[in-house]
Design goal:
155 residues; Leucine-rich Repeat Variant; 10 helices
């Protein structure tokens, strides 16, 4: 990708909250390398978050591993965006990377992980979801886990 195109990606991501994300997604897979670089190396968490969102919209399989790596980002909004992006890609294999987030201290991260696992439709996390539905300290997490269990069990 040319430097002009890379600069354009940077400009699209630097605008108001979500301005430019639609255009980034329309750029498609040719934007993936630059977005991955931003996701993995940018110092600004907002830029990493936006990169994850755009990668989720593009759905390029080349972004799966970098998004999995971002599940350990220090910023919770980046983690949540990476979880959502992975779920939108439909890669069931990533459920094993998302499942540990069910025990994250941040309830918002747990909520995103629950929704992602329900969307991915894998049964591997059923015991963890059952535990959350019964014992999580937050009612909204218990409800999310109960709904995810219902979806996964097809009832």
């Amino acid at each position: 990708m040319s430097t002009d195109a890379e600069d354009r990606i940077e400009d699209l991501m630097s605008g108001d909250e979500y301005d430019g994300l639609g255009e980034l997604i329309r750029l498609g897979e040719k934007a993936t390398p630059r977005l991955v670089a931003i996701l993995l190396k940018h110092s600004d968490a907002l830029m990493r978050k936006r990169s994850a969102i755009a990668l989720g919209g593009i759905r390029d399989r080349a972004a799966v591993e970098p998004l999995v790596s971002s599940l350990s980002d220090e910023d919770p909004t980046v983690v949540m965006s990476a979880v959502d992006a992975l779920a939108s890609m439909g890669e069931k294999a990533v459920s094993q990377s998302i499942t540990p987030l069910l025990s994250n201290i941040d309830p918002s991260i747990r909520k995103h992980a629950i929704r992602a696992l329900a969307e991915l439709g894998t049964s591997e996390s059923l015991p963890d979801l059952e535990a959350l539905s019964e014992r999580d300290e937050h009612e909204f997490i218990r409800r999310e886990a109960t709904e995810a269990l219902r979806r996964l069990r097809g009832s």
